[in-house]
Design a protein that fits this description.
This protein is mainly alpha-helical and about 160 residues long. It has seven helices and no strands. The longest helix is centred in the C-terminal third of the chain and has 24 residues.
């Protein structure tokens, strides 16, 4: 008889954590707003241009990269955080709009959203908001490395 050394496994799901659309995470909410703008812009243009057009193909490439769930996951702070992944996705979304031949007011909305998200991400990163959210989650779950950061290093 095989006895597992793991005694307290808990069921979990990717959906349980609300990793991709947390109402209390303004970075994710802003990302989702830019994603909607990029998707709407792309689909509005789709009926007006040749699907074989290089510009359209590049827009689709950027859009596919920008809507990847990985970018939102790394913004979750549950418990992972990576500004580079988040901002790469944001850049892909704004490139979708930049690539398409649309009115300047739409491009300006995308650029403003892009700039807002970039500023928020680096503010969270350097001011410690992201780490605080991770620590709070780890404390609530009773696991993680929050205790290492709370105690001074003694050499």
């Amino acid at each position: 008889n095989f006895q597992s050394p793991i005694s307290n496994l808990q069921f979990t799901s990717w959906e349980d954590e609300n990793l991709w659309s947390d109402a209390d995470n303004p970075i994710q909410q802003s990302y989702l707003n830019l994603m909607r703008l990029s998707l709407d812009t792309y689909w509005d243009q789709r009926s007006h241009i040749d699907k074989e057009d290089e510009q359209f193909k590049w827009a689709r490439e950027h859009l596919d990269n920008g809507v990847s769930s990985c970018n939102l996951f790394w913004a979750s702070c549950k418990p992972w955080w990576n500004p580079d992944y988040i901002l790469w996705g944001v850049e892909q979304l704004v490139k979708t709009v930049r690539t398409l031949d649309v009115d300047n007011h739409i491009k300006l909305r995308a650029e403003q959203s892009y700039s807002k998200i970039m500023a928020m991400v680096w503010d969270w990163h350097w001011a410690g908001e992201a780490q605080q959210r991770i620590d709070n989650l780890e404390k609530a779950n009773g696991r993680g490395l929050f205790w290492v950061r709370e105690q001074p290093t003694r050499w």
